[in-house]
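Researcher: I'm preparing a figure for a lab meeting and need a structural model of a single chain. I don't have an experimental structure, so a prediction will have to do for now. The sequence is pasted below. Please return the structure as tokens so I can convert it later.
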Amino acid sequence: MNNRAGVRILVRPGLALAIISIFSMVACTIPILSTSSKGSVRVSITETLSAASAIQPDINTTPASYTISGTGPNSATISQDLTGTSATIGSLAIGTWTITVNARNASGTVIGSGSSTVTVAAGSVSSLSITVVPLSGDGSLSLNLDWPSDEITSPVIQATLSNSGFSRTLAFTIGGDGHSATYSASDIPAGYYTLAISLYDGTTKYDGSAALVRIWAGASSTGSFTFSRSSPSTGSVDVVVAVNLNDPLTVAISGGAAYKKRDEAMSLSATATGAEGTYSYQWYVNGESRGTGSAFVFDASWAIGDYQIDVIAYSADGTQAGIATLSTYVGVTELSVTFDYGVSSTSSGNNIYAIWIEDAEDGVSFVQHLYVCERLKKSVTGQTGTALPYWRTNYSTEESDANIDAVTGATVRSADFTVSGLLRDENIRKFTVYVEMDRSFEPNDWFTGATSSDLNDQPALLYSATVDRDDWNGDVQLSFAGWSPNTAQAGTISGTSVGALNTETRYITNHKVDDTPTFGDADTNSATKMVGSLTFHLE
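Model: Understood. Here is the structure written out token by token.
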């Protein structure tokens, strides 16, 4: 009789499925029952991973490889590392086996484990399922808070960390600077938790937030908050391993908007995916619990101001959770700008624009953005590119990324549009509305012919109108106020610099005379042709 054992590796790209088959092949020259009593084990691993916004542990929780091990009769052992999608190894003694699967991340750290026992019987195939779950034990949590130093004199923090089987009041330490606080603990059991924080000035609520926290055994989770009012003789075993590392749920809020008028209601709905069965939902407004269920109405009872609305979803068994957040503003006075598109001398370029207002009574005090088109936002760290140099130089950093994101929307290209928002400071009675816009690849006599593509179009255009709320007589038309060069255009006209406003509009509206720096007749190729009209409306 010849005994043959072998290893077979099979890779199936594109499938999130790994299969390990451990076997022995016995070939006999006469039909007798083998006394080697060997069997085989088959292990399958299936991954289903998701992601969600949460305070996460400082450890990679994505499985990158698995170690399959087992102990059997007469102290027999097996061990196999799996980094591909399938593998086969051989020789298992028939009898009782304990099979263990450890999941490791890319750094080789064990992040989950599961095991079970099975009896390998000759001439039959047994099935066994093993679920890999996160390691049990305690993890650490560190939280950092800060707030404006000149707005709170007696800071008080109320915070809780809880889930269905755990609740703890968190005692923060106020920093010596008076406008920061910290909390840390190293004895929190692994799992998902809801964190609710409220910041008070004495007994007056200042701000608050809710967050989803994930604690991992042996790891640290850190969060920061900035508050701003803001066959023959053979047997086999099939072991199916389902990876369930309790990854975060994906949660979404629908029905929300960047603002709502005070006398209106905003009907919100939450949906969660990533687990089986039903989900439970808890709604928070500025860190305070305000409702349960998948639906929540942000009604007309809320005062003027900024609000953060969070919804935290839990799976039916409480082992998975996720969070979604909506930032919105409640106000009274609605503002809108309507752009009636004119004509363009080219078909290749696309317009881009930003709209903002500033206080007209105290000089040039920035008030708020009304709209920033998406093409200006290439990363969460700020605006990039050379478009709209006047806005980018003077106003793009006046508000936080969160506030700018709240008024960022799709770029309407070469078409009419209307954008609306709410005035964020009702004390402002007189203000100036600005619209800066640009359109690429529209040259004229003054800005053309250069080797750099940035010089093959006219500079960005600025339009404005001053509005007096106490003397409002109907819609106001914005007028052309000037132009501003970008980094490549600066200096093309003597004395011009990046981001500076130039009020000599004839460089945009008029031809040159005989290629000299002298103004001629009206230029039909002027970038101003793309603006039919800009109308401001107050309600």
